[in-house]
Amino acid sequence: MPDRAPQPVDRQLPTDEARDLISLVRDIAQREIAPKAAEEEDAGRFPREVFTLLSESGLLGLPYDSEYGGGEQPYEVYLQVLEELAAVRLTVGLGVSVHTLASYALATYGSKQQQVEHLPAMLGGGLLGAYCLSEPASGSDAASLRTKAVRDGEDWVITGTKAWITHGGIADFYTVMARTGEDGPRGISAFLVPSDAAGLSAAAPEKKMGMKGSPTAQVHFDGVRVGDERRIGEEGQGFAIALSALDSGRLGIAACAIGVAQAALDEAVTYATERRQFGKPIADFQGLRFMLADMATQIEAGRALYLAAARLRDAGRPFAKQAAMAKLLCTDAAMKVTTDAVQILGGYGYTADFPAERYMREAKVLQIVEGTNQIQRMVIARHLAGPEGR
């Protein structure tokens, strides 16, 4: 029933260049990513060659300055690229988001000299980044991190362990938050650490319920020495840099969530219009029609919210509250939509022969990464009612 087949998302894009960009992304996604996505996820294989292609195609530095090899695209466009990639394979969409997050500190707070020296390779030179904030004992309470950077002449010596690091062990550079001073948020600084630094190592990747192709690992810093020229921003500014990066990163997670949800909806619509029971397509039964309608509505609402937050960011206006709202709403919607997709496919939805179960497993992690959805509610409430315990 081709008249009912899902169609590509009809996007509202600001320029012809943006429309061409989305067309390029869709072509790469369908030609290079989709054919191997299920097989490689099942095998736990990270598609480094895809990221090399994305870098060569100018897709790993989209929101950053063209002076340094970036695409100089507004977040409104960049996030829709993420959504397209995540709809085909979350490992790729989330990987691009994490790389963008890892590049943020230097691109936004780095000195001119640092940017000239490092950004071209980070944004378009085939490198892949990782963002190191969380630790085994400090996840949601990131300001209590214990990894230390001690001054030694013109160098810093970093010692500690970071946890839950996407691209841990395969990244080419790590943006690392480490304690250089007093306890609390004011004693943290940011550093750009190359992956080949002596004393840097990664543990075996975590065994996860989803996103098996994306390595998540602890990263150990055993007396890693970096020059002061690799400190980003001022001493003690690291936590502010980290939070600023996460505001933008949460929009990336929101866009990825909508991508996964859209893929699940498309799968459910295709199945429901082709599967026949009692002499007619199951999509003709009101119960399932209403489920599909609710799924589509949640996706549209989530997309509208993350784009509204992105437009605030692009206009230079505060957007932290809206970013938290978008991350919360979009990831919760993805969990609901993917669960409903499995239900619509029935027994087939519970098998690995169809992608619905993979979407459902992948959606769960999006409610956790870059601030759990409970943390997002705390952030939103602080904007509404002020800090707790005043």
Walk me through the structure.
There is one protein chain. With 390 residues, the protein is of the alpha+beta class. Helix content is 51%, strand content 14%. The protein contains ten helices and ten strands. α4 (90-109) runs antiparallel to α6 and α7 packs antiparallel against α8. The longest helix is centred in the middle third of the chain and has 37 residues, at 238-274. The radius of gyration is 21 Å and the shape is globular. The termini are far apart. The model has no long low-confidence stretch (mean pLDDT 96).
For the sheet with most strands, the description reads:
4 strands, mixed
Beginning-to-end CA distance, first to last residue: 60 Å
Radius of gyration: 21 Å
Task: Give the fraction of residues assigned to helices.
Answer: 40-55%
- How are the strands ordered across the major sheet? 1-4-5-8
Regions with little confidence, pLDDT below 50 for 5+ residues = none
How would you sum up the global shape? globular
Structural class by secondary-structure content: alpha+beta
Helix/strand order:
HHHHHEEEEEEEEHEEHHHH
Strand composition percent: 5-15%
Number of helices: 10
Let me know the average pLDDT.
96
Instruction: Tally the beta strands.
Output: 10
Task: Give structural attributes.
4-stranded antiparallel beta sheet; 10 helices; 10 strands
Question: What would you say about this model in short?
Answer:
The protein is an alpha+beta fold and 390 residues long. It contains 10 helices and 10 strands.
